[in-house]
Specification:
Length: about 425
């Protein structure tokens, strides 16, 4: 029987969501008066309901149990808010569980967000050694891996520059390289790879495969089901903080994709996002040709997608902003990207501090299926906001070809093209 690397024993994590009371601050006289009226219990625990402080409990994890054996690569999947990132933070000792126990055997390297553990004032070189020291590595071990880390990150020219001057791409590459190359027995990776370009994503996935084959224990969080199925031998499915399934990755993915759809709308509370925050996307809504708010559109029908944003920038020019809206299938395979790089933003002068960016598609020629929407916005080439699965769009069957026959995506592919067939009696080949 394999020895475990990680054992999670019925862990729960509770947060309090409280509203600050609008009444004046409580004085000692108030407290003594309440104590006289309510007894010792009021002094010890307070009386929030009477002062207007309505604390609400939110359970990010509820009674999660799991054991990961040494050398296993385990996928961790679930919809946004399922508790995936919270679980990794518990394992990384960033936060303590409310109840339960997490036992981790071995040095842990974690990449939970871009540049986790980096100090902005230190250079890239200093941050590599700092991260190594934090996880308990000796200087000789870091020396041995240093050149490989820098080469992978492709930041040789800037390795002695403070990382606060790095672009988001450079920051990401170095952060991943440090986490993947330092010699930890256990590696925890959250959804951070999707913000890189396609070449970097392929490079990272190749490195993740190499890490898994080396016998290290990996827990990998991603919304990209192709990456999960490629890397993970087994997977764990979380739903609203509770454990739903542990077992073969294919079965976990099947159950995940069969879950009810999430609602489009408010993005302001999404915490599973990355970027410097200079521009934040706060809403996503889909409208049909009549201007009605919908979640489903027929194949070939017009659709308008409206994305609300807020900016901290003054004099934001349309040419400084790039917005990508990527449609993927539910496995994370890209279907198409609608971008202001391909079709420039139609705006005069500077953009308002808050507003809507709308994309109109006169003919959404996709086969019947549910598609995910990823949103990415950058300012002067630096990522300011990235949200995977910001929303979902149902495409329903329509008489697209006027023949009564409707293509099926899994059999015929996603894209629909109007076309004509003819026969010519003359063979001039």
């Amino acid at each position: 029987m394999s020895e475990f690397a990680i054992r999670i024993d019925h862990i729960s994590k509770r947060y309090r969501i409280g509203s600050t009371p609008k009444t004046r601050y409580r004085t000692l006289r108030d407290t003594l008066a309440e104590t006289a009226a309510a007894g010792w219990h009021a002094l010890r625990y307070g009386s929030r309901n009477q002062t207007g402080d309505c604390d609400e409990e939110f359970w990010a994890l509820r009674d999660v149990f799991l054991e990961v054996n040494c050398g296993e690569v385990t996928g961790l999947i679930g919809r946004n808010g399922a508790g995936k990132s919270t679980l990794l933070k518990v394992l990384s000792r960033i936060t303590e569980p409310t109840s339960g126990l997490a036992e981790v055997r071995g040095r842990v390297g974690s990449l939970l967000e871009v540049g986790t553990g980096f100090h902005q004032e230190l250079t890239g070189r200093e941050n590599v050694y700092l991260n190594g020291a934090i996880i308990g590595m000796k200087r000789a071990e870091i020396d041995r891996k240093f050149d490989e880390i820098v080469a992978f990150a492709e930041v040789e020219k800037f390795i002695d520059t403070p990382v606060k001057r790095y672009s988001s791409g450079m920051y990401l590459r170095l952060a991943f390289a440090v986490a993947a190359h330092l010699e930890t027995e256990i590696l925890l990776v959250d959804e951070v790879l999707a913000v890189g370009d396609a070449a970097f994503q392929r490079k990272c996935l190749g490195k993740m495969e190499e890490v898994g084959e080396s016998g290290r224990t990996v827990i990998f969080v991603s919304h990209d089901m192709t990456a999960i199925s490629r890397l993970a031998h087994s997977s764990v499915l979380l739903d609203q903080g509770r454990l739903q399934f542990i077992g073969q990755t294919d079965e976990a993915i099947r159950l995940y994709l069969s879950q009810p759809l999430s609602n489009n709308g408010d993005l302001s509370l999404r915490t599973d996002r990355s970027g410097d925050g200079l521009i934040r996307l706060d809403s996503l809504r889909i409208y049909d040709s009549r201007g009605r708010l919908v979640e489903s559109i027929g194949s070939g029908e017009p659709v308008t997608i409206a994305i609300g944003y807020r900016s901290n920038l003054k004099n934001l020019q349309p040419s400084d902003l790039v917005l990508d809206l990527r449609l993927t299938d539910m496995m994370g395979h890209p279907i198409t990207t609608l971008s202001t790089r391909f079709s420039p933003l139609n705006a005069q002068g500077s953009l308002p501090a808050a507003g809507l960016l709308t994309c109109h598609i006169p003919n959404l020629a996709l086969a019947e299926e549910t598609y995910a929407i990823d949103l990415w916005v950058s300012y002067r080439s630096a990522t300011t906001d990235y949200i995977a699965r910001a929303g979902e769009l149902n495409i329903t069957n329509s008489n697209f070809f006027s023949t009564g026959y409707a293509p099926v995506k899994r059999k015929h592919g996603a894209a629909l093209f109007k076309h004509e067939w003819a026969v010519d009696s003359n063979d001039n080949r």
